[in-house]
Amino acid sequence: EALTGRGVLRRAMAALGAYRCIECNREAAELYRDYQRGVLRISICKSCQKPVDKYIEYDPVIILINAILCKAQAYRHILFNTKINIHGKLCIFCLLCEAYLRWLQLQDSSQNIDPDDLIRYAKEWDFYRMFGIASLEQTSFLVGIFITLWWMRPKMLKTKSDFILLLKALLLSSYGKLLLIPAVIWEHDYTPVCLAFIKVFVLISNSQAIRVTLNLNRLLPWLAIFFGLILENGVVCLFQKMGWDV
């Protein structure tokens, strides 16, 4: 194969172990081979003898549906075989959604309708405070997960790139928090139940992200999430003792 720009890039990616088989999680040299004139052939995994990544032919909507269904293959495709770098922006937007939900609940509990500028400034400050609290809780949750995994399987998080990949996976798998806004906008008697389902869905997605990223069984990711929730709730209790509405 001629060392074209695409060929050089593909060889470099393979050297870095950037590609993974979505079925068995083994490293792969390439996802497909380009025979020019629009002829592509999906690579076959040498370990499991299945296509390395069948999703490269799928429509993004189908991939999203499979991700919503928490299929491990879809998660491996997104995390290892694509270059999605929206995890930072997605995290900020999810925190804004959570802060808005808390701020709205705080305003509903307040009976003060004075339009004075000082009152409006106080309400704006409340939103910033909710955003800060949501950020600290999210950070505590992630720290709890990392500490648990590092303590139980230190060999799996031995490099900085391992931490970054797992952090990216956890942030991307929290996309379910975006459903908080529709749940609030279309408020009805079942809103608390909807919020509970959203929370459970996000935790299931986080568990699958940990499992796929570190190639673990189902038990350890849930154990890490459990300790993450303990640390997060500890931060909540601390804020409540300080007299803050969270």
Automatic annotation (TrEMBL):
The keyword Transcription does not apply. Coiled coil: none annotated. It is found in: Endoplasmic reticulum membrane. The keyword Membrane applies. This is Protein ARV. Its main location: endoplasmic reticulum. Belongs to the ARV1 family. It comes from the Eukaryota.
